[in-house]
Amino acid sequence: AQRVTQPEKLLSVFKGAPVELKCNYSYSGSPELFWYVQYSRQRLQLLLRHISRESIKGFTADLNKGETSFHLKKPFAQEEDSAMYYCALLTLNAGGTSYGKLTFGQGTILTVHP
Amino acid sequence: NAGVTQTPKFQVLKTGQSMTLQCAQDMNHEYMSWYRQDPGMGLRLIHYSVGAGITDQGEVPNGYNVSRSTTEDFPLRLLSAAPSQTSVYFCASSTGDAGAYGYTFGSGTRLTVV
Fold first, then answer.
1. Which has the higher per-residue pLDDT, B41 or B101?
2. Quick one: chain A helix, strand, coil %, rounded to 5?
3. Cis peptide bond prior to B61, omega within 30° of 0
4. What residues of B are in contact with residue A56 (Cβ under 8 Å)?
5. Which end of chain B lies in a sparser environment, N or C, as judged by fewer CB atoms within 10 Å?
6. Closest CA to A6 of A109, A82, A113, A81
């Protein structure tokens, strides 16, 4: 069965410091991974998709299949980055299409201090 | 284009009462899902659907019922509310190519069972 682990419930950094939110996954198939962000009392928003290899709001994430990790990084944290971050894994079938099941980690609350 | 709309936003129920949480999307998305969000537990999948007439159980389906008679709507029914069902409920939808586009989330329903 698929599993997503975010080992840190809370992460605090100061403005301008680098930040890394850890995500590890367990999945027998080829993973499709995402990072979602939830600002205070708002809906979840898609932040990054690993297949697009994009940088959004200065965040990047690289899939490391050897370490089964998909850590989220930003070189210089900003106060507006304070939020809950979720790593998520999409389950695919043998044909490579989605079952439609998205499994989330427990989430990491990032606080960026001024 | 309203995206994913959830109603109500807040609800208080007494133990044993039943109710339906509504979810509607206007993006012609094939996939729809219900999650519950609890502190320290992340988001857990309750039920999901890959198209009208097709539903399946997620990680925590007990006490909940779903049906998908149209592409647009995916209501979640609480059969007999229990205090353990106090949570924030999120509905999400996606195209069939969920890996490329990710899921779009509603704003949530905050449910308290007393």
1. B41
2. 5, 50, 45
3. no
4. none
5. N
6. A109
Better-predicted residue by pLDDT, A84 or A32:
A84
Of residues A69, A67, A28, A66, the one with CA closest to residue A50? A69
Chain A residues whose CB is inside 8 A of the B110 CB are none
What is the rounded distance in angstroms from the CA atom of residue B17 to the CA atom of residue B114?
Answer: 10
Query: Whole-angstrom Cα distance, residue B25 to residue B27?
Result: 6
What residues of chain B lie within 8 A of the CB of A36, using their CB?
Answer: 102, 105
∠ CA A38-A41-A45, nearest 5°, is 25
Please check whether residue A14 is in contact with residue A78, taking contact to mean a CB–CB distance below 8 angstroms: no
Provide residues of A within 8 Å CB-CB of chain B.
6, 9, 32, 34, 36, 42-46, 49, 51, 86, 90, 92, 97-107
Which amino acid is present at A98? S
Q: B57 pLDDT exceeds 60? A: yes
